Amino acid sequence: MDYHARVAMYANTLGLSLAEVEVERIAGRKSSTLYSILNLPGGGPECSRLLDELRLQIKRKYEAEDACTLHMLCHLTLNELSDICIQWAKSEKKCEPLLILSEQRMT
Description:
- Helix 1 packs across helix 3 (31-38), helix 1 crosses helix 5 and helix 4 packs across helix 5 (67-90).
- It is built from 6 helices and no strands.
- It is an all-alpha fold.
């Protein structure tokens, strides 16, 4: 997962819109690109890269499993990736403003 995808996932995990000026600045990409990386609504027609790649890798590794199991594995993997991104962002000084922004929004 590249830097831009990690920032997008971190911001999304914090509940921030990927269209936030600060998110775009830190990620170095426009919101439409960030949405497309995470396969989230708002990303336009190319809205599929990360999720499609994840689905493909899981399907290859667990090809004997049924569709429901593959779907659950995909969601579990996405949750784990979110946790990994949070840990990464805690050590990435550039991401500090995103945490502050999300905390401000919660109060």
